[in-house]
Design goal:
Layout lengths: L7 E2 L18 H4 L18 E5 L28 H14 L4 E5 L9 H10 L3 E6 L6 H10 L3 E5 L5 H8 L4 H14 L3 E8 L7 H11 L3 E6 L14 H17 L4 E5 L3 H9 L4 H4 L2 H4 L8 E4 L4 E3 L6 E2 L1 E2 L5 H7 L1 H7 L5 H5 L11 H7 L32 E2 L1 H9 L2 H18 L3 E2 L1 H12 L9
Parallel strand pairs: 1-11, 2-3, 2-9, 3-4, 4-5, 5-6, 6-7, 7-8, 13-14
Antiparallel strand pairs: 9-10, 10-12
Bound molecules: iron/sulfur cluster (2 copies).
């Protein structure tokens, strides 16, 4: 079994990694004043879009790649956040951004007895809640309850279309069958689901078939995860950088074929560089945040461990502090760990790269390899050409005179936070081009149909 990485005390490392005293934008006070941010970003750019709540180490499986060292699978460990502590954490996240997506995961979250109470608490505060699960415990009763609570969807992991391969990887016979039955239970009960696939040497060649399968099954999203070898995964081998390029390129091409299923690479940020190389104006290139497939660690994404440590992403046990001792608000807004991601001093080829602002490389891979999370991402094959930085339009204001009527504005505000700016810009641009002075709900509906046909959008709103 692989070893777990120790949680790192950041303050011992700032000097070693050359952060020292940062420019004024890194001061938390500067975050309050958007005019101080030279690249046009505002405090809104550092709102959480996505928080992964790893609320338990309990698990009913023994997956090789699990980043949690799940030795306390049965009980979860004595230091697991209590129900009340989870409620308080969610209340504090709401103070920063209720519009963020909460991913309740583990371990296997459905093994934790109070997990539905925690989900209910989050939904009652208007959070969008999804689960990351192995799917084995979802039956009609659980699916119905999740729908009643208002959970938006389930991300269910499938590692192979060959049940034996999936079971071998998951360590339990029957895991594949139970996961697929879980998906069927979601479908029968109107609970949206996403397929999560971790690309590994043993399965990456199955991707074309997995994409077809997920689409035929009715998945709204296919997330293809790229492994960062931590926890048990430390002893696994990753696919090679050449295979990465090949798979990422295939995913980008596949998105064109499936307008009603979002296909994204997760934790391979050079997906953005490849998408840009293929088409600087493609929807993937323009999409920001969670929809874009880049890395959000520490800028718009964080993870809470089962005992309350707040880290920039699940693959980095680099704690900004513990929510038992500090409020989430303080840690999110004032942590030097998070500042190091928001104002990064990238090194090596990532520092020199013209794509650093839309890609930036994975920070967890150099961290796991040698502790320096600002170093280059060695899983990217690209050699920077030293040109001008490729820019993204960070919340760029476009001059528009169109206005939103009240109904349309209400609908806009129900759109998940990480999508809202993109939808707003798209609708306003269309209205401007067509000389439409007022955006109505009918116009939004018309544009939605143009984009998705009669299919539902990827996210309900
Ligand atoms: S640092 Fe790497 S593993 Fe973490 S979220 Fe970013 S891409 Fe994924
Ligand atoms: S060199 Fe770094 S920043 Fe450039 S594309 Fe590769 S991973 Fe991204």
């Amino acid at each position: 079994m692989g070893k777990s990485l120790p949680v790192l005390n950041f303050t011992n490392w700032t000097e070693k990694l050359g952060f020292g005293k940062k420019a004024s934008p890194a001061d938390s006070s500067a975050l309050q004043d958007p005019s101080l941010l030279a690249d046009g970003r505002t405090v809104d750019d550092f709102k959480p879009y996505l928080i992964a709540l790893n609320l338990t180490k309990r698990c009913n499986l023994k997956c090789d790649h699990c980043y949690l060292d799940a030795t306390t699978k049965a009980g979860g460990g004595s230091d697991e956040l209590s129900t009340e502590e989870c409620f308080r954490l969610i209340d504090q996240i709401a103070e920063v951004n209720k519009g963020c997506l909460l991913v309740i995961t583990g371990g296997e979250p459905l093994v934790r007895p109070d997990i539905l109470d925690i989900a209910r608490h989050a939904v009652q505060l208007d959070f969008m809640v999804v689960f990351g699960t192995n799917g084995m415990l979802i039956n009609d009763r659980i699916a119905r309850e999740l729908v009643d609570i208002g959970v938006m969807g389930m991300g269910i992991s499938i590692d192979s279309l060959d049940p034996q391969k999936h079971d071998a990887f998951r360590g339990i016979p029957g895991a594949w069958k139970a996961a697929v039955e879980g998906i069927e239970a979601c479908k029968r009960n109107g609970l949206q689901f996403q397929v999560h696939f971790s690309a590994q040497p043993m399965n990456y060649q199955e991707l074309p078939a997995v994409i077809d399968w997920a689409h035929d099954l009715g998945a709204r999203v296919l997330n293809v995860f790229f492994m960062v070898c931590t926890g048990r995964g430390e002893e696994l081998t990753d696919i090679t950088p050449e295979q990465y390029e090949h798979v990422l390129s295939y995913l980008i091409d596949s998105q064109d074929k499936y307008a009603d299923m979002l296909i994204r690479a997760r934790c391979a940020p050079h997906f953005k560089r490849l998408a840009y190389e293929k088409d600087p104006n493609s929807p993937i290139t323009k999409a920001q945040g969670y929809m874009g497939g880049g890395c959000l660690a520490g800028t718009n994404y964080a993870r809470v461990t089962p005992n309350g440590d707040l880290t920039p992403c699940p693959y980095m046990p680099l704690s900004a502090g513990n929510i038992r001792e500090n409020s989430f608000v303080d840690l999110w807004e004032r942590s030097e760990v998070f500042d190091s991601f928001r104002y990064p001093h990238l090194k090596g080829k990532c520092g020199d790269c013209e794509y650093s602002e839309i890609c930036g490389g994975c920070r967890a891979r150099p961290y796991v390899d040698h502790g320096d999370w600002m170093d280059e991402d060695e899983w990217c094959l690209y050699t920077p050409k030293g040109g001008e930085k490729v820019k993204v339009a960070f919340n760029a204001q476009e001059n528009t005179t169109v206005i939103w009527d009240q109904e349309a504005e209400t609908r806009l505000n129900r759109i998940p936070y990480f999508l809202r700016a993109m939808v707003k810009k798209g609708v306003e641009r269309h209205a401007d081009e067509q000389g439409i002075p007022v955006i109505t709900i009918e116009l939004m509906e018309e544009l939605r149909k143009k984009r998705f046909g009669n299919e539902k959008p990827v996210f309900k709103f």
